[in-house]
Structures are given as structure tokens and as C-alpha cells.
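Homework help board

Subject: predicted structure for assignment chain

Our instructor gave us this sequence and asked us to write out the predicted structure in C-alpha cell form, then describe one feature. I got the C-alpha cells but I'm not sure how to describe them. Can anyone check?
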Amino acid sequence: MAGQSNETAMKLLKLACVTVLVGLPCLATAESLRCAGGIVAEGDSRLSVIYKCGQPVLTDTYCAPVYYAGSLNPVPEPLASAVVPCQPIEQLLYERGPGEMLATVYLRSGVVQSIAYGRQPR
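My C-alpha cell output:
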């Protein structure tokens, strides 16, 4: 009886270890951008990005959708703008050279929220 209990405990421990190891890559999803003046990462200011990488090739600003609390459903526009102020998102597009992917830096309230790479702007 005790042997079976130890065997079950070992199986649970192995399962927990595998679960943690599979989840580890998800923890390191933050991107960074290497520029001539340094590395830009999440949490950097807009000023820091311009200082490190120079002026972007293109910029754009749009209002992020507002979502109902605890759901993935956006609040309809007439109601959203009447109740909650716009959350402006600024995009800075950087060309990194021949053969390199474009880098898009997303800023909210003047702070880097994320960095995405692609062959063309999203």
C-alpha cells in the first residue's frame, strides 16, 4: 500500500515538473530591439527609444478598444468614448537593414508596451 502511494506521488511530481518546464518559454515573451545607441525594451520611454534608435521611418497613433471588465468583448464605440477616455497607442516603425525584419514599437502613455517583428507592418 505504501509503495503504491509513493509511486503515485512520484508520478504527480514528474507531471508537475513537466508542466513547469513546458510553461517556462511563455514566461520570457518580452521582446527587445537592438539599435546603434543601445537596446530598447518594454518599459522604456519614448524619449529613450528615439535616443537609442533615432527617428522611426513611420509613426501612427490609434485609440485602443476598451473592453468590458473580465471579458474579451469590446465596449461599443458611442458608449466607450462617453464613459472611458481614449487609450492612444503610438506605433513607431523601424527598418533594421537589408534582410532584417521590420520592428514595430508600441507605446502607451509614452512607454514601450511591446515590440513586434515582421516582414511588413501589422
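Reply (TA_rk): Your C-alpha cells look well-formed. For the description, you could write something like this. The first strand starts at residue 32 and ends at 35. That's the kind of observation they're looking for.
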